[in-house]
Every structure is written in C-alpha cells, then in structure tokens.
Amino acid sequence: MLNRIILIFLFSGMAHAEIRGKYASITPVRMHEFAKSHIYTGKANSQTLSGVWEGGKDVCYPFSDANIKIYAGTGQCCLSIKGIGNRYVFSKILFSGDKTGKLYDMCSHSVMKRQK
User: Fold this and answer.
1) What mean pLDDT do residues 37-61 have?
2) Of 7, 29, 106, 110, which one has the fewest beta carbons inside 10 Å?
3) Domain that holds residue 77
C-alpha cells in the first residue's frame, strides 16, 4: 500500500531534502521537527512527542494532497506542507488513531516559519 521512500521526492514544488528542519507556528504553540534520519519530534501545548516520518507523492494514498506522514504515539497523521513566501502552510489531510493522544493536537492546520 505505501511506496518505499526513493532518494529524492518532489512534492508541492519542494524537494524532499528541503522539508527537513524545524518549524514553529507564528504564535509558538506548535512545533514540528523533521530530522534527516526520519526522526520526528513534535510539540503542542507544552507536550512533546517523538516518532518517525516519511514523505513523498503517494505517502497517504489515496489522499494525493498529503506529502508527509507522521507515525507517533498512538496515531498516524497525513499532512500537506506548502511553502508560500517565507512561511509554510501545514494542512491536515487525515488522522487515524487515538484522538485523545498527543499526536492529534499536533496534527492540525497551521502556518509556520522555519527555525534556524
């Protein structure tokens, strides 16, 4: 069902390597960090969660808008990430799992800025 990750993906006009990094919402309530080794760290409402992530065109098939999938705690989250100007728009496409878990709060619509 899920395709294996190929070395370089192109999604939403951004190369796979470009999505790696740390992002924080404009009002610092939410943070996503996508490490090079596919380790994910997220923070929302003073809670931290670790997991793994993968990206690509069909990562959340059949939901073609999603270009990244996070596996953490008791959930899975499919997001669409799109760069607009100097901001990144994170759009929730799909969530599956425990809606009372930490990932559910992190898997939501937000506008973020890449941290240095």
Assistant:
1) 93
2) 7
3) 10-114
Kindly give, in sequence order, each residue whose CB lies less than 8 Å from that of residue 40, ignoring residues fewer than 6 positions away: 32, 33, 34, 50, 51, 52, 53, 70, 71, 72
Share of the chain above pLDDT 90, in %: 62
Please report the pLDDT score of residue 20 as a whole number. Answer: 83
Helix, coil or strand: residue 67: coil
Whole-number mean pLDDT of the chain?
83
Minimal CA–CA distance to 34: which of 49, 54, 48, 14? 54
Whether residue 2 lies inside any domain: the answer is: no
- Kindly report the number of other CB atoms within 10 A of residue 10's CB atom: 12
Residue 27 lies in a domain: yes
